């Protein structure tokens, strides 16, 4: 491949194919030297181009600032033009025969790009010719990107009446976890009314973006609406399907049971939807100042590893975090990284609650990951698939939770913290899979017809009722609550990555607490690897000596937890035949989580040695009984 370098304004570099370049079918890349230097040059170009994408933070901090929005749009248009000029690169790379690629990978210089090339080549069956790819890229600025911009502008402009004030979305949603029930109800009603008054626009945005995706998927012959996301995440469709079906299967034993428990704590038969995230009656009303939150998170990370703690501290000292709640600011939280040569930025809406501290720790997990990957990888290898990215964030969140739990002064406070952690897990796994199901149904139906507002709202209510269970009741306005969730608009099917990451972290954190030698250094090396390794590299943290045959596992369960065993399996014997691999793995995680949270001496590791090659699938399934029989945990206090 031969590049032509063209001068451009704003210190950008523009690439285009050499004048003799005709099509990907006439591959110019033939030698290891050609490929290596082409990759190095393309890396330099993309680093220069996307470095300027950090202007996203300007808009996120104040979406109502007209100058910021105009500047951001101008930058998007320039970046789109430059990205269009180098589309030919991956198309041509993917035309190299597989046999030749295998030979090229033997070259040491190309080894650093091996995983990136393999990932790019997984898209080969779904690529279009150069002209169509360029049209899709060029038109994106006035098609899906324009609709995303409309959504962001609308969300930033919304005002929610509350008592005598008009609040931003971040401010009003904070009141949904207020201690006062009437305050929660008032906030919920305000949210529902405002979203309902704008639902026609939200519906149009959703319908249009779903149809744009459907057309693109159809042209590329992608088998399902979620296939493109799975390719990007470097995870098989079957793994995601297994995760989703397993979570749905255990809705009744997880979220349904927990919310029934929570309703009991409130001395109610059921909870209204605005009570779902309500503080527990026995929960402390403690809040954190920004300085206290900083110390809590920095200390938690530093206890794990001083170098990691030092990186976290840099985010505070160098003001890489935007924390105040402001009008026009994007709701929620995110960590923004663009290229390896620029440090990441973090945006949160900090309001002093324990969950805000957890959110801060979560985003700093992303930040540390992005920082380490940027320092140790090239442009192509710094970015990680979501399956691994969310693992780093949830691990950091767990470190902080354990630190706060250790500082609890009473059993009542400890019980409340454990219950809050359970709710966080439900929000991370159950709720996100419900979001995924909502997205999937909308996208599948949108292939053939425009969806009415009532249809979208009906899908939303169906998945909410199925996932949260009969102990949560709704009122009419809740049907509009799908409309504010940005992941549906910005990144279709992103949400299952949260569940994926949470599942992996539970196993990973258990290994850490068991004292695996040099765990912190191995974990840091994993973060440093960025996108140069697949998510299943995590299995290297687990030792074969930690596994046990199923007969031993079931025997141990029966001896140490006889009441639980009898409740689930009656008086049956013959442990080997009682449970299949899936059921064994699921029951195992429940026991391990109890040990992790309250120190109960139970089975150390429950995976059967013969299924290590399916590590990724089993680890996903392992998470699903974390809440089963959770009453036993609380009864210990």
In short:
With 637 residues, this protein is mainly α.
Strand order of the largest sheet: 6-8-7
Helix content percent band: 55-70%
pLDDT averaged over residues: 78
Straight-line distance between termini: 68 Å
Low-confidence runs of at least 5 consecutive residues: 1-28, 542-557, 572-637
Task: Tell me the β content.
Answer: under 5%
Compute the number of helices.
Answer: 31
C-alpha-based Rg, rounded: 25 Å
**Shape assignment:** globular
Structural class: mainly alpha
Number of strands: 9
Biggest sheet details: 3 strands, mixed
Question: How are the SSEs ordered, and which strands pair?
Answer:
Elements: E1 3-7, E2 13-17, H1 32-50, H2 56-61, H3 66-85, H4 87-93, H5 98-104, H6 108-111, H7 114-121, H8 130-139, H9 144-157, E3 160-162, E4 165-167, H10 169-174, H11 181-197, H12 199-220, H13 227-233, H14 237-249, H15 252-265, E5 271-272, H16 290-304, H17 306-317, E6 321-322, E7 334-336, E8 345-347, H18 354-376, H19 379-382, H20 386-406, H21 411-446, H22 453-468, E9 472-473, H23 487-490, H24 496-513, H25 519-528, H26 550-560, H27 562-569, H28 575-578, H29 581-598, H30 615-622, H31 631-635
Parallel strand pairs: 5-9, 6-8
Antiparallel strand pairs: 1-2, 3-4, 7-8
Name some characteristics of this structure.
single chain; two-stranded antiparallel sheet; globular; disordered C terminus; three-stranded mixed beta sheet; mainly alpha; 61% helix; 9 strands
Description:
The chain is mainly α. The chain is built from 31 helices and nine strands. Helix content is 61%, strand content 4%. The strands form four sheets. Strands 6-8-7 form a three-stranded mixed β-sheet. The protein has a two-stranded antiparallel sheet with strand order 1-2. Strand 7 and strand 8 (345-347) form a beta hairpin. The chain starts with a strand and ends with a helix. Mean pLDDT is 78; it is low at 1-28, 542-557 and 572-637.
């Amino acid at each position: 491949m031969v590049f032509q370098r063209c001068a451009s304004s704003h210190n950008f570099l523009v690439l285009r194919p050499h004048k003799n370049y005709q099509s990907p079918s006439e591959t110019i890349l033939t030698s290891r030297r050609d490929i290596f230097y082409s990759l190095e040059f393309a890396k330099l170009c993309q680093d220069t181009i996307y470095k300027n994408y950090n202007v996203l933070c300007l808009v996120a901090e104040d979406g109502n600032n007209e100058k910021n929005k105009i500047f951001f749009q101008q930058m998007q248009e320039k970046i789109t033009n430059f990205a269009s000029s180098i589309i030919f690169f991956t198309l041509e790379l993917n035309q190299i025969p597989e046999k030749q690629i295998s030979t090229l990978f033997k070259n040491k210089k190309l080894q650093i790009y091996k995983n990136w090339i393999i990932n790019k080549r997984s898209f080969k069956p779904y690529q279009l010719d150069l002209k169509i790819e360029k049209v899709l890229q060029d038109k994106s600025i006035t098609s899906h990107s324009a609709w995303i911009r409309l959504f962001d502008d609308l969300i930033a402009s919304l005002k929610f009446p509350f008592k005598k004030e008009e609040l931003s979305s971040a401010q009003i949603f904070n009141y949904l976890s207020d201690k006062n029930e009437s305050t929660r109800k008032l906030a919920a009603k305000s949210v529902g009314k405002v979203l309902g008054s704008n639902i026609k626009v939200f519906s149009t945005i959703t319908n249009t973006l779903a149809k744009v995706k459907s057309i693109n998927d159809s042209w590329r012959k992608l088998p399902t609406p979620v296939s493109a996301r799975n390719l990007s995440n470097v995870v098989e469709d079957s793994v995601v399907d297994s995760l989703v079906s397993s979570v749905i299967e255990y809705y009744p034993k997880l979220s349904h049971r927990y919310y029934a428990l929570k309703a009991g704590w409130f001395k109610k038969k059921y909870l209204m939807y605005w009570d779902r995230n309500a503080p527990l009656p026995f929960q402390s009303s403690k809040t954190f100042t920004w300085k206290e939150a900083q110390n809590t998170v920095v200390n938690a990370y530093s206890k794990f590893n001083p170098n990691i703690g030092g990186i976290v501290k840099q985010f505070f000292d160098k003001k890489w975090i935007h924390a105040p709640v402001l009008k026009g600011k994007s709701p929620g939280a995110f960590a923004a990284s663009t290229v390896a040569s620029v440090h990441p930025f973090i945006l949160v809406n900090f309001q002093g609650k324990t969950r805000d501290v957890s959110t801060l720790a979560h985003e700093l997990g992303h930040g540390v990951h992005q920082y380490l990957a940027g320092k140790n990888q090239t442009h192509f290898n710094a970015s990680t698939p979501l399956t691994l990215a969310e693992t780093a964030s949830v691990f950091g969140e767990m470190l902080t939770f354990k630190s706060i739990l250790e500082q609890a002064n009473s059993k009542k406070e400890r019980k409340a913290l454990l219950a809050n952690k359970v709710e966080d897990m439900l929000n991370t796994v159950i709720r996100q899979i419900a979001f995924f199901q909502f997205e999937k149904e909308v996208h599948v139906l949108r292939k053939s017809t425009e969806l009415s507002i009532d249809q979208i709202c009906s899908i939303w209510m169906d998945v909410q009722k199925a996932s949260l269970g009969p102990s949560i009741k709704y009122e009419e306005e809740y049907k509009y609550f799908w409309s504010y969730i940005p992941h549906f608009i910005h990144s279709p099917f992103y949400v299952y990555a949260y569940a994926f990451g949470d599942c992996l972290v539970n196993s990973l954190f258990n290994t850490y607490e068991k004292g695996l030698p040099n765990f912190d250094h191995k974990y840091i090396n994993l973060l440093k690897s960025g996108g140069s390794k697949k998510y299943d590299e995590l299995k290297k943290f687990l030792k074969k000596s930690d596994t046990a045959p199923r007969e031993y596992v079931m025997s141990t369960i029966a001896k140490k937890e006889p009441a639980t065993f009898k409740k689930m399996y009656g008086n049956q014997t013959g442990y080997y035949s009682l449970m299949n691999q899936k059921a064994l793995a699921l029951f195992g995680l429940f026991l391990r989580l109890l040990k992790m949270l309250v120190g109960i001496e139970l089975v150390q590791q429950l995976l059967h040695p013969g299924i290590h090659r399916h590590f990724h699938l089993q680890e996903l399934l392992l998470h699903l009984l974390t809440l089963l029989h959770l009453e036993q945990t609380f009864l210990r206090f």
